[in-house]
Amino acid sequence: MKYFAESELIINPDGSVFHLHLKPEELADKVILVGDPGRVETVASHFESRECEVESREFKTITGTYKGKRITVLSTGIGCDNIDIVVNELDALANIDFTTRQEKEKFHQLELVRIGTCGGLQPYTPVGTFICSEKSIGFDGLLNFYAGRNDVCDLAFEEAFCKHMEWSPLLCAPYVIDANAELISRINQGDMVNGVTIAAGGFFGPQGRELRVPLADPHQNEKVESFEYNGYRITNFEMESSALAGLSRLMGHKAMTVCMVIANRLIKEANTGYKNTIDTLITTVLDRI
Ligand code: R1P
Ligand code: URA
Predict the structure, then answer these.
(1) Ligand 1 pocket, 209 CB below 6 A?
(2) Is 59 exposed, middle or buried (0-12, 13-18, 19+ CB in 10 A)?
(3) What's the chain's average pLDDT?
(4) Pocket (CB within 6 angstroms of ligand 2)
(5) Running DSSP on this structure, what letter comes out for residue 89?
(6) Which of 230, 243, 281 is nearest to 90 (CA)?
(7) Residue 96: beta bridge partners?
(8) Second-level CATH architecture of 24-288
(9) Where are the bilayer-spanning segments (predicted)?
């Protein structure tokens, strides 16, 4: 059985995992991930009971029950680097024995649903639309560090995308990964849009936003919006869905992302007063997870 040394899997003196500060018994099988730590309380406000609340850096966690289902809600902060930490530590909590530091004999599968915000890229994704990331294109490069990346990614899609974008060798290779299809069909019951999401390694340049510093490719977003492959078009930009879908697939967990559009990049429109609309998305996911 594989043994994980103290430097590789860091466990705090209280028995909790290094960054999340969660203990194995505090994690539910159904996990909702949000970017904003403030959104954790919005999700947990719908719980009928709470068994634990833990906070460390940007990672705030509450485990409780919703309509009898045990659910953990956890904030990841912004970006795929945090997803690397969160998904690895969640998997360790579920699948490594913290006493012996060995992998457990029986695999324990988690269901991970990210509820986020995003920028819409098509005329049919106006502000307020809920988009499920059926496929994610990772601009972040994270999955390229893991073995098995080529076994789980859509290599033909990647090739077509790089060709269309005239992808610069200065950028890390984009990876294309599917969310869990069963989870998508359960969460999207016809009232959301299934789409292709670019998970960017930044909010400004990597998403084609130009403030004072010009972009390396001023035509990036026009190319993103016009890309089509096997009937798929790119619907939205956010920053975590590819790392979440990719790592979860390599580990054997079910994962997906659903985001509410808060800015439409085509018609240059944004809405920052979205608290009520995202609460509708939260209760919908809580009912269906
Ligand atoms: C950027 O504003 C953040 O918002 C989106 C992006 O993915 C990024 O994390 O998601 P969240 O609203 O979940 O944070
Ligand atoms: N989150 C993003 O990453 N991009 C947007 O445009 C809006 C929310």
Answers:
(1) no
(2) buried
(3) 98
(4) 117-119, 203, 207, 237-239, 262-263
(5) H
(6) 243
(7) 103
(8) 3-Layer(aba) Sandwich (3.40)
(9) none
